[in-house]
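This section describes the prediction task in plain terms. A model, or a person checking by hand, is given the sequence of a single protein chain and must write out its three-dimensional structure as a string of tokens. No templates, partner chains or ligands are provided. The sample shown here is typical of the held-out split.
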Amino acid sequence: MSGYELDARRMLCPMPVIKTQNKVKELAVGDILSVICTDPGVLSDIPAWARINGHTILGHQDNGDEITIIVMVGS
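The expected answer:
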């Protein structure tokens, strides 16, 4: 298991989800991806994408300016 980071700041829907999907394709099952975003829509968009595609949301941090969503890659 390894940790990775994806910078999706200043991107609007659907780009954070598309960038997340593309990055996850490069990772192994069990890897952890931290997606850093500024679009508040990711709080619903990325979890919905993860649920449909078999990934797990481990949590998120919202500091007002940036949102970080932690995704564990599923099979």
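For orientation: DSSP finds two helices and four strands in the chain.
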